[in-house]
Amino acid sequence: MSTRPDRKAPGASTGRVVLSENEIRRALRRVAHELLERNKGADDLVLLGIPRRGATLAARLAEAIAEVEGVHVPTGALDVTMYRDDLRLQPIRTAAPTQIPPAGIDDAVVVLVDDVLFHGRTVRAALDAIGDLGRPRAVRLAVLIDRGHRDLPIRADHVGKNLPTALRERVHVSLVEDDGIDEVRIVDAPAADTSEVTS
């Protein structure tokens, strides 16, 4: 039975594809190897994805680590909606559930996982959210795409692809679990569209 939903991400089928299904798979496997190498194994690792596609990517990284290491790394989802600094500037958002592994995150090496790193404000919000949940030994950041244009001094530890972009462009990450297809597209946003879909 297919688990592919019918809907597609905004921007799907427009713009140009910068990462295909196979390239996304290879990028995630490389990031999984990097995580294991830096951590010297999977001990104490916890993967927390930022909904929604970050949570999907965290689950895929956990699968890739299990294939390499034979160990299931605890995963969870970290909603950052109430920690954002642009709440009053954006339409009302529905918060997604935060799901932390039963053992918690104290003294763990937490790897935040997101689809796109842009201004860095979502990651800042995630760091604030983590502070309310526990005290990890270290927090690292893994993203599928780093498109630059940072507003804050935040840097990813593990990057699937560095993708230089213009500010007018938007990056759409589509994943089978969420959108029915695996691909990353770069799209020219309409001149009147100043909203931000990536972080």
TrEMBL record:
Q: Where is the Phosphoribosyltransferase domain?
A: 23-157
EC no.? 2.4.2.9
Pfam families in the record, alphabetically? Answer: Pribosyltran
Q: Key word Transcription regulation present in the record?
A: yes
Annotated signal sequence range: none
Is Cell division found in the keyword set? no
Q: Which GO terms fall under molecular function for this chain's record?
A: uracil phosphoribosyltransferase activity
Report which superkingdom the organism of origin falls in: Bacteria
The top EC class is transferase
Keywords of the record, alphabetical order, are:
Glycosyltransferase, Transcription, Transcription regulation, Transferase
Describe the reaction catalysed, as an equation: UMP + diphosphate = 5-phospho-alpha-D-ribose 1-diphosphate + uracil
Q: Which GO terms describe its biological process?
A: regulation of DNA-templated transcription
> Where is the motif named PRPP-binding mapped on this chain?
110-122
Q: Which family does it belong to?
A: Belongs to the purine/pyrimidine phosphoribosyltransferase family. PyrR subfamily.
Q: What does this protein do?
A: Also displays a weak uracil phosphoribosyltransferase activity which is not physiologically significant.
Enumerate the HAMAP family for this protein: PyrR
Name this protein carries in UniProt: Bifunctional protein PyrR
The lineage, from the top, is: Bacteria, Bacillati, Actinomycetota, Actinomycetes, Micrococcales
Q: Which gene encodes it?
A: pyrR
